[in-house]
UniProtKB/TrEMBL annotation:
Protein name, entry field: Glycos_transf_1
One annotated GO molecular function: hexosyltransferase activity
The organism of origin for this protein: uncultured Methylobacterium sp
PANTHER family referenced in this protein's UniProt entry, alphabetically: SULFOQUINOVOSYL TRANSFERASE SQD2
InterPro entries for the chain: Glycosyltransferase_grp1
Pfam families: Glyco_trans_1_4
Length: 170
């Protein structure tokens, strides 16, 4: 028995598995009981679009995702937007440098361990942004969906198994 987290892994393993081996999908999940559902903060009419990114800050694919996100945001002028970034790690100085040109449009929250505070950030946002470069899955997309927040995500790895284009995000 081989357990896979996403449909893309199943396709790859199907081609190389022994004939008697069975592949079973076991997608990651969240226990909703562990997440409070705070009320969303009212958004003033005509206010900025509120983006949220929640991710580790480390070299490699995570840093590449932050760079891709910064590049995409640079193309949104003259749209009025704000980005809250949650996360920390050894690449934080590089991530801060990527977003420095945006000035006060970007706020860094560091690591937010309190689920109530994190849930409030999800619920107070309009859209989750995360390119998910080479991610096998991305629990952040489940967290966002639990809070009713749609996502714009990269179509990498198993992300397409949870961010359904046109339904739970783009």
């Amino acid at each position: 028995l081989v357990l896979v987290l996403n449909p893309r892994d199943a396709v790859v393993l199907e081609a190389v598995k022994p004939p008697a081996q069975r592949i079973v999908a076991l997608p990651p999940f969240l226990d909703p009981a562990g997440w409070p559902l705070p009320p969303a903060a009212p958004q003033p009419a005509g206010g900025p679009v509120r983006f949220l990114a929640v991710a580790m800050m480390r070299p490699g694919d995570k840093l590449a995702s932050h760079a891709l996100m910064a590049d995409a945001l640079s193309r949104l002028t003259p749209l009025d937007w704000r980005l809250d970034i949650v996360g920390d790690g050894p690449a934080r100085p590089q991530v801060e440098a990527l977003f420095a040109p945006f000035g006060g449009c970007v706020r860094f929250h560091g690591l937010v361990e309190d689920r109530g505070a994190l849930a409030a950030l999800y619920r107070d946002s309009d859209l989750l942004l995360w390119p998910a470069v080479n991610e096998a899955f991305g629990m952040v997309f489940l967290e966002a969906a639990l809070q009713g927040l749609p996502a714009v995500a990269g179509d990498f790895g198993g992300v397409a198994g949870v961010v359904i284009h046109g339904e739970t995000g783009l």
